[in-house]
Each structure stands twice: as structure tokens, then as C-alpha cells.
Amino acid sequence: MATALAKAADATTSVEYAARIEHVSKSFAGPAGQQLVLDDITLDVAPGEFVTLLGASGCGKSTLLNLVAGLDAPTAGNITTHGRPALMFQEHALFPWLTAGKNIELALRLRGVVKAERRGKTEELLELVRLKGAYGKRVHELSGGMRQRVAMARALAQDSQILLMDEPFAALDAITRDMLHDELTRIWSETGLSVLFVTHNVREAVRLAQRVILLSSRPGRIAREWTVDIAQPRRIEDAPVAELSIEITEQLRGEIRRHGQH
Ligand SMILES: Nc1ncnc2c1ncn2[C@@H]1O[C@H](COP(=O)(O)OP(=O)(O)O)[C@@H](O)[C@H]1O
Ligand SMILES: [Mg+2]
């Protein structure tokens, strides 16, 4: 699989992209034969870039993210990433029998960090996601927002150059989601990570990204993209965010109408 074969970044060469998606299509076998879900997607995520992939439910966003993660293979085309991406999903997927700290330490261990350094690094990561003191907390003792912070710290523990996020805040209430948007923006600017973030929420896409990619439905194709030229940190209720969201929503509605979903 292309992702697994991706070269590690070489410090002596300048890296052009964190992820490169070239003419990628994906079909699944369905009751009515092969169903084309993604059609000829080409997209680069630059080093340090924050890109959101926006589209209606069922348009193939998760499918594309899973392909970039190397969890599945494209039917056609190529995907390369610099190193192995870190993943974060809507469900936190933390191990409930481990504490917050041990969940993060496990990721460090899998990355090969020696035991003597793990505790210190875990504390640093907890501080980065503003969960200082939560090391010994069990998953069930944490709120939804805190769980997603631990999941973020665990993803960051992998020390990847690219973070793939699949609607990670969709199950949170609006205030918690707002706060996590702020944290993610701060962490992104502090770490220089590349982020490919999937959402069906237009405002969230505009709040976070430098570039918004709109996918059409059935099959998923890149319908349009926008560069978001609004200074960070933004707020979801800022006028320029709202203005661009209205424009993008119009396009998204057009895509949905064209495909007769509503
Ligand atoms: N493993 C699979 N087998 C068959 N069909 C799938 C599989 N994964 C996704 N699909 C189909 O692909 C389409 C896109 O799904 P998905 O990528 O989950 O959409 P999104 O994340 O944008 O909501 C849906 O029609 C879904 O039923
Ligand atoms: Mg999805």
C-alpha cells in the first residue's frame, strides 16, 4: 500500500507535501454491483497546512480519510504520506481500562519511546491539551470534551507529521466544541503539524482551515475549494467566517439538490 511505502521525511530535502492524493477512486461492491464512492480525487496537503474536507453525509469523506490513513486501498490512483499519519475519530477510542495517562503512554511505547521518558512526555502532552493533573483519571471519569483532549494528546504522541481527523468534535456540545476548536488551532500553530480534517459542518470547516475542499456526492468528487484568508484565532461567530460559510452552504445545497437527497 502506498501509505505504508511512504518515505520518511529526509531533513536534507525540502518536503513538498505531507500527503499527496493522486487520481484516487474507490468503489465498493454493493447489491447493484460496484458502487463508485470516490471519483478521481487529486489533492495535496502541504507541510504545516490545515485543510478541511467538507461534504454531505455519505459523500465519501471517511472513505477518503481511511485511504490516506492506509486502512484501506484505493481502487485506482495513488496516495503517499510522509511517515505514518495519526488518526482521531468522533468516538475517542480510548482504552477504558487504562487511565488517561496510560492511554497516551501506550502510544509513546508503540512509537518506541523508552520507558524512562514516557511519563515526562505524557505530562507534557497533557499540558499541551490543557489537562494537567488528569494523568490518573479513568476514561469514565472524564467528560466528552476531556476524552477528546486525551484522544488528541494520544494522536500527538505518535509524533506524526500529519493528523487525520474524522468529525472529532461532532458529538460534543457547542461550547465544548468551540473550546476544542481553539485548542486545535493553538496546537496546530505551535507544532507545525499538517491537518486533514473531515466535517459536514460548514462553519467548523471555515473556523479551522486554511483551505476548504468541498466534495460532491455520489460519487464524491472535488466540487470546489476555497482559501480561507481570515486571521487565526477566529471565532465561529465572526462576520467573515459567517459570510464565507453562507457562500459555501449555497454550493453545498446545490450539490445535495443535484443528487436528489432532499
Ligand atoms: N466498507 C464499505 N463497504 C461498502 N460500502 C461502503 C463501505 N464504506 C463506505 N461505504 C459507502 O460509501 C459511501 C460513503 O461513505 P462514507 O465515506 O462513510 O461517507 P461520509 O464519511 O462522507 O459520511 C456510503 O454510501 C457508504 O455506504
Ligand atoms: Mg464519515
From TrEMBL:
Keyword Iron-sulfur tagged: no
Taxonomy, superkingdom: Bacteria
Domain ABC transporter: 19-244
SMART domains assigned: AAA
Keyword Coiled coil: no
Pfam family, one: ABC_tran
GO molecular function, one term: ATP hydrolysis activity
InterPro entries recorded: AAA+_ATPase (IPR003593), ABC_transporter-like_ATP-bd (IPR003439), ABC_transporter-like_CS (IPR017871), ABC_transporter_ATP-bind (IPR050166), P-loop_NTPase (IPR027417)
Keywords per UniProt: ATP-binding, Nucleotide-binding, Transport
CDD domains linked: ABC_NrtD_SsuB_transporters
Cross-referenced PANTHER family: ALIPHATIC SULFONATES IMPORT ATP-BINDING PROTEIN SSUB, TAURINE IMPORT ATP-BINDING PROTEIN-RELATED
UniProt protein name: ABC transporter ATP-binding protein
Natural source organism: Streptomyces albiflavescens
